[in-house]
Amino acid sequence: MAFSRLKEDIVAVNHILLVEDDCDLANITKFYLTHAGYTVDVASSCAQATELLNRVSYQVVLLDSVLPDGRGNSLCPLIREKDRLCPILFLSCLDDSESIVSALELGGDDYMVKPVDDEEMLLRISALLRRSNIANEHKLHAGNTVLDYDALT
Question: I need a labelling partner for 42 at 20 to 30 A (CA). Which of 48, 50, 78, 130 fits?
């Protein structure tokens, strides 16, 4: 039991949570992300996503805004409570400005309207990870110069 608990607490590099209720779309997206080198867990509802978020640390969350048991937006506070720097990329069929603004105001970092271009999605994930790593490290690299916030150097 202790071993399985320890195993769950291990953070995989570039571990993504994909919250998507369309099974076919989830499988295609997972396949594409896996082949790009990411480890991907899939949740098809808010309840499944909440369960995974309480057990596993993710570097990125890809979040559908319309799910069978609620709005994906409702997961933003939980994600922010667990890890305030974890990037959230909304993948949604809702393309009106009110939905986009609402998702970003609730804590989303980026928003793409479905159907998404896989290459663009990978580039956005890469950019989110890059910004997140800078924030997590508290270091800023500019050429040969490194500003270290923690060491004040």
Answer: 130
Is the distance from CB of 48 to CB of 25 less than 8 angstroms?
no
Side chain identity at residue 81, one-letter code: E
Predicted confidence (pLDDT) per residue in 50-84, tens digit: 999 999 999 999 999 999 998 888 899 889 888 88
Amino acid at 40: V
The radius of gyration of the chain's CA atoms, rounded to the nearest angstrom, is: 16
| Whole-number pLDDT of residue 104 | 94
Using an 8 Å Cβ cutoff, are 107 and 76 in contact? yes
- Give the model confidence (pLDDT) of 13-31 as tens digits: 689 999 999 999 999 999 9
> What is the chain's length?
153
Element (H, E) at 110: strand 110-113
CA distance 113 to 44: 18
Whose CA is closest to 36, among 16, 7, 61? Answer: 16
